[in-house]
Write the C-alpha cells for this entry.
Amino acid sequence: MIPHEKSPADNSMDTLTTDTATRRDFLKAGAVVTGATLAPGVLFYGVAHSRPADAPASAAVRWGMLIDTQKCGDGCKSCVTACNEENGLSGKTGPQDSQWIRKVDIRNLQTGAHHELPMLCQHCEKPPCVDVCPTGASMKRADGIVLVDRHICIGCRYCMMACPYKARSLVHEPLTEQKPDVPRGMGCVEACTFCVQRVDRDESPACVEACAKDGHNAMLFGNLNDADAPIAKALKSMASTEVRADLNLNTGVRYQGI
Amino acid sequence: MMAKSLLKKGVGVLLVTVGGLFGLLSVAQAGVDIPSLPPAKSAGKCVEDTDFMRRNHMDVLKHHRDDTMRLGIRTTKHSLKGCVECHASEKSGSVASSKEDFCVACHSYASVKLDCWGCHATKPGKKPADHPSAALGATRAGGGK
Amino acid sequence: MNIAFREIQAKQGYWLTMLVFGALAGMGVLSALYMEHNGHIVTGMTNQIVWGLPHVFAVFLIVAASGALNVASIATVFGKTLYKPLNRLSALMALTFLAGGLMALVLDLGRADRLVVAMTQYNFKSIFAWNVILYNGFFAIVIAYLWTMMDRKGAPWYKAVGTFAFVWRLILTTGTGSIFGFLVAREAYDAALLAPMFIIFSFNYGLAMFLLILMGLYKGDNRPLGDKLVNRLRSLLGTFVAASLYFTLVYHLTNLYFTKHHGLEAFLLLEGGIHTQMFWVGQVLIGYVVPMAILFNPATRGRGWTVIAAVAAVLGGLAQMWVTIIGGQAYPMDLFPGYTVTSSFYDGAVNAYSPALVEILLGIGGVATAILLTVGASKVLRFMPERLDDETLAALHGKH
C-alpha cells in the first residue's frame, strides 16, 4: 500500500507537471479508503503503481496473478464472461474461436481429487512464444506482460506451437466492432493481455474484478516485485505452484490448492 | 563513373514518371475532385498543423503505435483512438466504414492501402463516466482514458 | 571428353506437362487467395491443430529441396565423377523445390501480405527467423553454385562454392528439423534427434524426387539414360530409406523407454486412428518396407520398379510429415501430469483435424510449382546432359 521507493514516475519528475504531483498526493490519500473498501481480490493499483501516461512500463514492476483453486467456484465462469466482455471476444467455443481464459477441470488419476481453475496466458518470465517468434511480434513488456504486437505479427502460429499452456488463439475470420482499447483482427495471433489497457489505468484485469464481484475472491492480481503487495505477501507465506514448473519458465500466474 | 550516375538519374526519372502515371491513373479512377472530408469534432484544431498531418500522420501514428504497444506509453495526443474520436463522421459514426468517411475518402483518392481497420475500432467507444481515472484524465499527462 | 548439355525440346509432352502443373500451381494460388480473404476459418486448421496440410507439403518440399542438392554435393565435395553430369539438375531442383515449399508455407500465413515484415524484422533467438536467413542464403549460394557449373568464368570456384553449399544445406536442414526440435512444450517434439533425423529424411526424399524428375525428363525428351547411373542412384536411395527407418526406430524406442512418453507412443503407434494408420501404413509400410523390398531386390531392377520405389518413398515422406506435424499436435499437451484435464478449449482431448479442399490444393500447388519451375527451367537453360547412356558415362568416367 506504499508507493514504490523508486518508481519510473520519480525518475521522470522533471517532465511532470505539478498537477501530476498533486494527483499522486490525492492517490496516496485515497489509498487508505480504497484499500479498505475493496476486497483483497480487487486492488486499486494506482496506489502502488501510478505510472504517468508518458512514462514507459518499468522493469521495477512485475505483474502477476495468484489463483486459489479452493475458492474457484463450482462451474462459475464469471472470469471468462468478463474477459470476453472486456476484450470483445465472441464467447463462442468452437475449435476455431479465440479463448483468452478458460475454466479447466482437473481430476487426479490416483486420488480422484477434483479441482477447477481458470487457465490463461501465464505471462512467463522466459516465454517460449517470445523465443520462437520470427519477427519479434511476440514480446514481453518491461513489466512482465506478454503481448502480441499485431502490427508485425505475420500469423505463422509458431508461438501457438511453442506455448505449453495453449494460451494463444489465431483469429480465424474477419472481425468488426472491436473495442477501441482492444484492437484485434484476422490473421494475427492473440492471447490474454492481463487486460493491459486496464492495468495501465490502474485497474486490475476484468477477470479478477469479476471473480471478486461474485464473492469468490479466487484471483489476486498485483506487483510481484512489491514486497508489500498482497500478492507478494501471499506468495511468500503459502505454498503455490507453477503449471509445468518443470519447464522453469517462472510464470507470472501461480496457483494454490493443487 | 559517368555512366553510373547517368544510369542512376535515368532510373530516378523512370521511377518518377511511372509513379506519376500511377498517380494520374488513380486520380482518374477516383474522379478528379479532391475528396471532401467530414468535419472534425473540434473544428480546425488538430493535434498538429493540418499540412503537417496530411504529409506525416503515418509517421506520427507509427511512432506512437510502437511507443504504446511495446513500451506502454499511453499519452493520447498522437493516438489512433484520438483520431477516431475526433474524425468519425456524423453520418456513419466511423472513420472508415463508408467511402465518404475521413480515412477512406483520402486513402482511396491517393490509392494507398489502409492496414489499420482490420484490427482497430473505426468508431469511438463509450467513455466510462464513473471511471476512477476519468476524473483524473485531465491531470494525467495526456490522460489514460 | 566433355558432356554436352542441352535444353529440353518444346514438344507436345513439354507443353502438356507445363499446362497440367501450371493449372495445379494456379489452383494453389487461388486457394491461398481465398484463404487470405476469408481467414483460416475456411480451412480445417484450428486453435488446436495450428499447422495443417500446407505445412505437411511445405516442410516435405523444403526438406526434399536440400536433399536434392545431394547429388551435386557427391560430385563436387566427394569427387564422384559419375554424378558430375547430374549436378546442374540437382542444384536446379534444390532451388525449385525450395521455392515450391516456401510458396505453400508463406501463402498459408495468417498475414501473407506482411511477407516483407518477415524479411526485414528478425528475432535472432527464433529458429524460424534463422530459417528465413538460411532459405534466402540457400537460394543465393545455389545460384552461385550453378554459375560455377555453367559459366567458364565461375569454374575455378566450383569446388569451393560447392563445398560451402553442402555445409549450408546441412545447416539448413538442421534448422528445419529444429523448428520442431526446439519446441519444449509438446511431447512429440522437444528432441535434439529431430535435426539429424530430418537430414537423413532429406537425403531420402530429395533423392526419390530427383530420380523421378530425372527419369521423367529423360523419358519425356527421348534422351538416353543408362542403367548404370539409375542403378547407382537406386542403391543410394535404398541406403537412405534404410537410414530413415533406423532414425525412426531410435526416435520411438527412446520415447518408449521413458515412462512419461508412453501416452504419446500409445497414441502414435496404437490408438491414434488416422495418425496411427499414417505411421504404420504410410510412413513404415509404403515409405520404408516397399521401397527397400524393391531397391534391395535384384529381381526388381526394372525402370518401372524404380519408379514405384521412388513414388513410395515420396508418399512415405508425406505420411511421415503428417505423423510428425499433425500427429504431434493432435496428441494433447500434458498441462497437469497425473490428472485428467477437460475444458472448453479442448484440453486433454485428442484434437480432430480434417483438412479442407483449399489446404489440399495449396499443398499440391506447392509441389506443382516445384515441378513446373524445374521443367520450365530445363527448357530455357542447359541443365540436362544430352546423353546419359552407359557408354557416354563410361567414356567420361574412364577419363578421370
